[in-house]
Design goal:
Layout: E1 2-9, E2 15-22, H1 25-34, E3 38-44, H2 52-63, H3 84-99, H4 104-114, H5 118-132, H6 137-142, H7 150-162, H8 165-223, H9 230-244, H10 246-265, H11 267-279, H12 283-304, H13 309-318, H14 323-337, H15 343-349, H16 354-366, H17 369-408
Antiparallel strand pairs: 1-2, 1-3
Helix pairs in contact: 3-4, 3-8, 4-5, 7-8, 8-9, 8-12, 8-17, 10-11, 11-12, 12-13, 12-17, 13-14, 14-15, 15-16, 16-17
């Protein structure tokens, strides 16, 4: 094992330096990234030979990791990522090839030739180069964290250690497929009310800006100075405000959106927002069940694949998708690390329903925790289906009443 001096940025953007032991510079970079650092320089310790300086210079050039330079011009969007569906297909195809007996390196070359996504194609070629140069597949994946997250990397690592890479890749592809299925169901549930609300707001704005002013003139001609009903006066006042205070309305919208994004970037603000998402009317039940399904399936898949429970909890926390759920998982991790059972902190968090806690308790007592977690995920997948149907049924009359109020006023 060689020793490497590194310079890296931590999660807060602060520079950190130190030593790390690894088999190669690529392995050192992967190890640092798994620890939550972004390495900017990884150099092997001084080599006691006449060519030490030159060797260190070559190592530094090979191992230095820098952020890509922006192209000339104005950058409006973030660097493109590989779509989850594309990555899911890649994982499924790789699992099929490896399971059929084709060597990993050959499988990567085959997939690189047929891949249409340019970014993933380039990444697969880099993976093949790393594997060919002696790196493990998991270490090669860890060099591309924007595409392969910690869950992906650690499951592959567990498969390599256990000699069941093809089985783990199959589980990983199944995990991605089920996660995508749940995501699509939730999106489908949001599309209908989103379209109706957008159309209703658009119609209301059109009426207030273009139609209501004409009625105001008619009322004035017919009624003269007679007082109008309170509701009519309110609608006319809103119409007048929208006609003559457009800049104020636009500025208010910009301020609200900016404030929401700013608050969402702070730890406390994100926690408040995500807590509200779990408790909000109509959508809260769906959000909670989706988050619990993701938690159970992620943790169950990791533990089934051989990832240690503490490491699996850390990865599950990172991929929770909700700050409130992530906080609860972090508390579970800390208490399990101290030697407690997983059941007590789950129950104490008050985030997970009693049924989930009971099923996990049974799984832990019978030594079948991974299987029980996957059963919890399956149960909550069905619950998500039911929640989507219930949400759609509840929204239909609400939307009808809302549209009636908009048109009626």
């Amino acid at each position: 094992m060689a020793r490497f001096n590194y310079v890296a940025l931590d999660a807060r953007g602060q520079e950190a330096t130190g030593l790390v032991e690894a088999a190669s510079s690529n392995a050192a970079i992967a190890q640092l990234r798994q620890s939550g650092f972004f390495p900017t320089s990884v150099i092997e310790e001084a080599i006691s030979s006449p060519d030490g300086k030159e060797a260190r210079r070559r190592e530094a050039m090979a191992a230095r990791v820098t952020k890509p330079r922006a192209k000339k011009g104005i950058t409006l969007f973030r660097r493109r990522k590989v779509k989850s569906k594309v990555l899911m297909i890649f994982t499924r195809q790789l699992a099929t090839l490896v399971d059929s007996g084709l060597p990993l390196l050959r499988s990567l070359h085959v997939l690189a030739k047929q891949e249409r996504d340019k970014l993933l194609k380039k990444t697969i070629n880099k993976l093949a180069d790393s594997v060919q140069s002696g790196s493990t597949f998991s270490d090669a994946l860890a060099l591309h964290p924007r595409i392969f997250n910690n869950l992906y990397v650690n499951m592959v690592k567990a498969g390599e250690v256990g000699g069941v890479l093809e089985l783990v890749l199959t589980r990983l592809s199944e995990f991605q497929e089920k996660a995508a299925k749940i995501k699509n169901k939730v999106i489908a549930a949001m599309v209908y009310p989103g379209i109706v609300m957008t159309m209703a707001v658009g119609i209301m704005c059109f009426l207030l800006v273009f139609i209501v002013p004409r009625f105001e003139m008619i009322f004035h001609d017919l009624l003269g100075d007679k007082p109008l009903p309170p509701v009519t006066r309110f609608v006319l006042a809103v119409s007048d405000f929208m006609q003559h205070r457009v800049l104020i309305i636009v500025a208010a919208i910009v301020v609200i959106v900016t404030l929401y994004k700013f608050i969402g970037r702070t730890r406390r603000g994100r926690l408040v927002i995500d807590n509200f998402k779990l408790r909000m009317p109509l959508f809260g039940n769906l959000n909670r069940k989706t988050a619990i399904s993701r938690f159970a399936r992620t943790l169950g898949t990791l533990v089934t694949s051989g990832v240690p429970i503490l490491q699996a909890l850390n990865i599950t926390r990172e991929t929770a998708g909700n700050a409130a759920i992530a906080l609860a998982i972090g508390q579970v991790h800390d208490r399990v690390k101290e030697g407690e059972s997983i059941v007590q902190p789950l129950e104490a968090s008050r985030v997970f329903p009693p049924m989930v806690v009971s099923m996990v308790d049974v799984g832990e007592e019978t030594g079948k925790l991974p299987e029980m977690l996957l059963k919890v995920a399956d149960v909550y997948d069905d619950e998500v289906d039911n929640a989507v149907v219930a949400l759609t049924s509840a929204l239909e009359p609400i939307m009808i009443v809302f549209l009636a109020v908009v048109v009626g006023t």
